[in-house]
């Protein structure tokens, strides 16, 4: 073998290795570890994140590289990008969250699992969260809502909506997921939970007095309390308790082929924490921004009120809502869907590549993060004409919206399993709000920031008048 031939082979090998590097997407990784993390976080808190992302898309096109939360990242957007992210079978990319989210929620939650593990855990969660199961809990949820409004709204002249909605949705979670009654224990877990979610999107540097450090400590306390609850639920089941009284007992009751629990204790804890975060933040933010819309648009408020009054009048006084009543709330849910389009609670998310991926003529290297952003298709005027206009009529025929373009709950096989829970919470709460109260905004500031969920300035204070006693 000649030296010339060896040289040619070596050059070919080197060129093959260099070629993917030449095909990296445009952009910069920025400062090591920090990258563009602080720029994005500052934009989110200033409510300019959509513009920050849109400017980047204008500058670099459909794909660009950056560094977020300590990891090299590729940002992709558009219908094709959403489809790539949400239809992956797990062979090319895996579920993945930022290091901060992973360390706070745990590595056995649905956002981290892929392949068979993802299917197994998702199926177990769906057994409780599917509509056929949730319809049995509408009454329990409604009782929490009525009690909340009696305690915090009835007889008041002014309330601040977002913190109250967070209190409400967390109480519903405690009731449905844990079977945890009101009292000191519930108060304790909500305190740690609020500290835990404070550092979900942060630079994962565990230094004293940082948000991330406080979140990690609070996460450890929440996990300790959930572990104790699981032990108690096991004893209750052994003593003949129903396997459908709450999510924990439901998951403990699901057995695999070997007659052992289908989910490990870590998987139960980590996924309950995930549902706590998703159910608490998504629903509370959605309801809050619907209250804002109803205050700002008299026509939409009148249409929602007409629909809900008809349902109320069709029932004997004091009778709880039935599953069939929720199906009649079509216009109210269209208002909710348009609210989710204009102010999606989830800004975006991440995946991790398991192999090099060829996309739009560039290589996304193995081991990198893929970052997608909800608003990129929600605010695209080629998909939603006049995207800044609030128009619930867009959803009169959902089939007319191209697939993978409306993604407040993700899409395809990756759609959020808590979607129906959020829908029921929202519809029942709005029913009681519009039929029992009128309100108006206390200030002219309609702005909000992201932290990372949308937060109305001042928490949305409103003046309220009670129509009748609950």
TrEMBL record:
One Pfam family from the record: p450
Gene3D superfamilies in UniProt: Cytochrome P450 (1.10.630.10)
Keywords assigned: Heme, Iron, Membrane, Metal-binding, Oxidoreductase, Transmembrane, Transmembrane helix
A biological process from GO: sterol metabolic process
Molecular-function annotations in GO: heme binding; iron ion binding; oxidoreductase activity, acting on paired donors, with incorporation or reduction of molecular oxygen, reduced flavin or flavoprotein as one donor, and incorporation of one atom of oxygen
Subcellular location as annotated: Membrane
Cofactor(s) required, per the database record: heme
GO cellular component, one term: membrane
Cited CDD domains: CYP90-like
Residues binding heme, per UniProt: 416
The organism's place on the tree of life at top rank: Eukaryota
Protein family: Belongs to the cytochrome P450 family.
Name this protein carries in UniProt: Beta-amyrin 28-monooxygenase
Organism: Sesamum angolense
Taxonomic path: Eukaryota, Viridiplantae, Streptophyta, Embryophyta, Tracheophyta
């Amino acid at each position: 073998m000649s030296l010339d031939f060896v040289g040619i082979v070596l050059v070919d090998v080197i060129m093959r290795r260099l070629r993917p590097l030449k095909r990296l997407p445009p952009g910069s990784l920025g400062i090591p570890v920090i990258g563009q993390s602080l720029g994005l976080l500052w934009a989110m808190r200033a409510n300019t994140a959509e513009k920050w992302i849109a400017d980047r898309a204008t500058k670099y096109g459909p794909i660009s590289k950056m560094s977020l939360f300590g990891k090299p990242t590729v940002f992709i957007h558009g219908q094709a990008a959403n489809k790539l992210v949400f239809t992956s079978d797990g062979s090319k990319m895996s579920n993945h969250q930022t290091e901060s989210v992973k360390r706070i929620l745990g590595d056995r939650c649905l956002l981290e699992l892929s392949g068979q593990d993802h299917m197994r855990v998702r199926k177990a969660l769906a057994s409780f969260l599917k509509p056929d199961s949730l319809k049995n809990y509408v009454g329990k949820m409604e009782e929490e809502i009525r009690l909340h409004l009696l305690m915090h709204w009835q007889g008041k002249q002014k309330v601040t909506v977002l913190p109250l909605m967070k209190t409400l949705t967390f109480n519903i979670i405690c009731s449905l997921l844990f079977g945890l009654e009101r009292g000191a224990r519930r108060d304790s877990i909500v305190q740690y939970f609020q500290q835990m979610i404070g550092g979900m999107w942060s630079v994962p540097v565990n230094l004293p007095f940082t948000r991330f450090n406080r979140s990690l400590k609070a996460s450890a306390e929440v996990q300790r309390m959930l572990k104790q609850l699981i032990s108690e639920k096991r004893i209750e089941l052994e003593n003949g308790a129903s396997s459908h009284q709450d999510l924990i007992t439901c998951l403990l009751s699901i057995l695999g082929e070997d007659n052992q629990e289908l989910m490990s204790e870590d998987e139960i804890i980590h996924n309950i924490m995930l549902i706590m975060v998703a159910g608490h933040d998504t629903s509370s933010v959605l309801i809050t921004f619907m209250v804002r819309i109803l205050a700002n648009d008299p026509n939409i408020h009148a249409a929602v009120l007409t629909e809900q009054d008809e349902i109320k009048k069709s029932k004997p006084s004091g009778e709880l809502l039935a599953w069939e009543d929720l199906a009649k709330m079509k216009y109210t849910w269209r208002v909710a869907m348009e609210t989710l389009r204009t102010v999606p609670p989830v800004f975006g998310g991440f995946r991790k590549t398991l192999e090099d991926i060829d996309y739009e003529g560039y290589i996304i290297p193995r081991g990198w993060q893929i970052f997608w952003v909800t608003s990129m298709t929600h605010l695209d005027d080629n998909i939603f004409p006049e995207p800044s206009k609030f128009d619930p009529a867009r959803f009169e025929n959902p089939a007319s919206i191209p697939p993978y373009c409306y993604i407040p709950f993700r899409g395809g096989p990756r759609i959020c399993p808590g979607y129906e829970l959020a829908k029921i919470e929202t519809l029942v709460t709005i029913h009681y709000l519009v039929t029992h109260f009128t309100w108006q905004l206390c200030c002219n500031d309609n702005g909000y920031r992201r932290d990372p969920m949308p937060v109305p300035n001042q928490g949305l204070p409103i003046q309220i008048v009670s129509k009748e006693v609950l």
